[in-house]
Amino acid sequence: MIERAVEDWLTSASERDFQVPFAQMLFAKGHRILLVSKHRPLEEGKDLVTIDPDGQCCAYQLKAGDINVSRWRTIQGELNDLIELPVNHPSVARDCSHKAYLVTNGEISDEVRHRIDLINDRNQALQRPVPPLGVVARGDMVRDFIDSHGEYLPSGVHDSHEFLGLYLSEGRSSFPKERFCNFLQNDLLRDEDGGFGKTIRAMTSAVLLTSYIAGAFQRANNHYALFEAWTCLLAQLAGYATKNRLRLETWKPSYDLVLDQAVGSLVALRAEALERSDLLEEPIIVDGGPVYRVRTTIVLGAVAALENYLLVNEPPESMVEGSLALYLRHHDHLWLWGESSAPFFFALVKFLEAAEHKELADALLRTVTEGVVRSNSPLSDAGLPSPYFSPQDILDQQLGSEDGEIAHYEFSGQSYSLESLIHMLARRGHREALAALWPSISHIAFAELVPDDEGNVFSWRTPGGVNRGTLPEPTQSWNALVDRAHNAVSCISASLCDYRWLFHFLILVYPHRFTPAISGLLDGVNS
């Protein structure tokens, strides 16, 4: 049954959809990944470039669908570039020969295979210094994918049921984060030290399974759900690697492949948002109100997080002016629905600062902090729900769902996000604003769950740890507060600091990981 699902997914996948799992499969076979196409000009017919276990350079052109004679004529120019132009990469000498492969998730007709044989024979007879063109079709890929799972392919009744439940998800809905993370952590990425080979095989299986599960969301162009899927996967892989004492550099090809998928999902979200005059969704007659405000906050925060990443890592891909215009057009609809919204505001503050709009950033940071203080004071009966309550939970309550009862008074007198926000203000020198708020702040306990193992910071739920609650002093030394804000990151190990850009996205998907230490780490990324 799982094999049928793999073939079904692959048949309907676009070339971008199967590019990452194909690259991950090659990595598991011992290839060193040099290039994964971002589908831009000047890539000279090469969507993927690797060095195989024998040290030979390999170049791949990926195509979706069947390749018949008519289709062959439309892609022959790219294939000529694939075999005739040398690989242009710093790790490959310009005069180095390479293997060339046409890869498709469809079938290659007999007529096309015959033409490929004729071309290869002719080039050999003429002693042309070009590689023969090899082919990889759907059947080959299905077998390779199944083999890559090894013992980690879901086979038991429970594992298969969980996988198929996720695989059959409604693509237009929210991504089932908790169920997905539990599936990976409990059924696949278990805490076992089976050596490097088994660890990489388990990671490969997780990447492939996520690709299959993401298929419905890809077909629905549900960009934010895809971002959540790839970010959840990356977190689970990081936690698994940490618990197995695997350094990032040893599995970085997988890390980069998955991170690129998460970033690409946000790039697609940004493109769609910039094309539209509003953020309404069909059916429009039932959209608006709190639903629209939640969507606006998520979209603007996610685009801001994307820009924060691109400005540091891929500046040519950033679109600061467009994203700023998007914010200015829709910022009136932002909503502090609960503490799970705090990471989105954090991303927006960082973006506005990077876009050189410090006044807007400062105003937004003060407004959010004041909103948390006002809502979560001990006398409030409308406390902001903790970050463990999702936007959907809040909307269910707002819209009168029977499952939407939230006792807001239970959250009064404590906050999970307030200390992080206070540290941000302190690092920016907002002494007067904090002085005015401190009489109220001093009555609100700073809440935080401290995991018992650093690898568990990547888990959806931490199996062990300490719930810490700290009540601020009635009076606070400014210098001591600034020192504490600047030193908040000191409790994060060097190995976790390697994942700072994962945390940059993870706090949007796991808002309960928006802690003083992690926010402090991220607050210094762009400085």
User: What is the average per-residue confidence, as pLDDT, rounded to a whole number?
Assistant: 92
Please identify the oligomeric state. Answer: single chain
Query: Unreliable runs, pLDDT <50, ≥5 residues?
Result: none
Strand order of the largest sheet: 1-2-3-4-5
Radius of gyration: 25 Å
Query: What fraction of the residues are assigned to beta strands by DSSP?
Result: 5-15%
- Tell the overall outline: elongated
Name the helix and strand elements from N-terminus to C-terminus, one letter apiece. HHEEEHEHEHHHHHHHHHHHEHHEEHHHH
Given helix and strand content, the structural type is alpha/beta
In total, the number of strands is 8
Helices, by number, come to 21
Spatial separation of the terminal alpha carbons: 51 Å
- Proportion of helical residues: 55-70%
- Mind describing the biggest β-sheet? 5 strands, mixed
Structure description:
- This protein is an alpha/beta fold and 527 residues long.
- It has helices at 2-12, 15-28, 69-84, 110-125, 138-149, 157-167, 177-187, 196-219, 223-243, 248-275, 289-313, 320-330, 342-354, 358-375, 391-398, 418-427, 431-441, 478-486, 494-497, 500-509, 516-523, and strands at residues 32-36, 48-51, 57-63, 98-104, 133-136, 414-415, 445-451, 465-470.
- The strands form two sheets. It has a five-stranded mixed beta sheet, sandwiched between helices. A three-stranded mixed beta sheet has the order 6-7-8, with no helix packed on it.
- The mean pLDDT is 92.
Summed up, what is this model?
The chain is of the alpha/beta class. It is about 55% helix and about 10% strand. Strand 4, helix 4 (about 110-125) and strand 5 form a beta-alpha-beta unit.
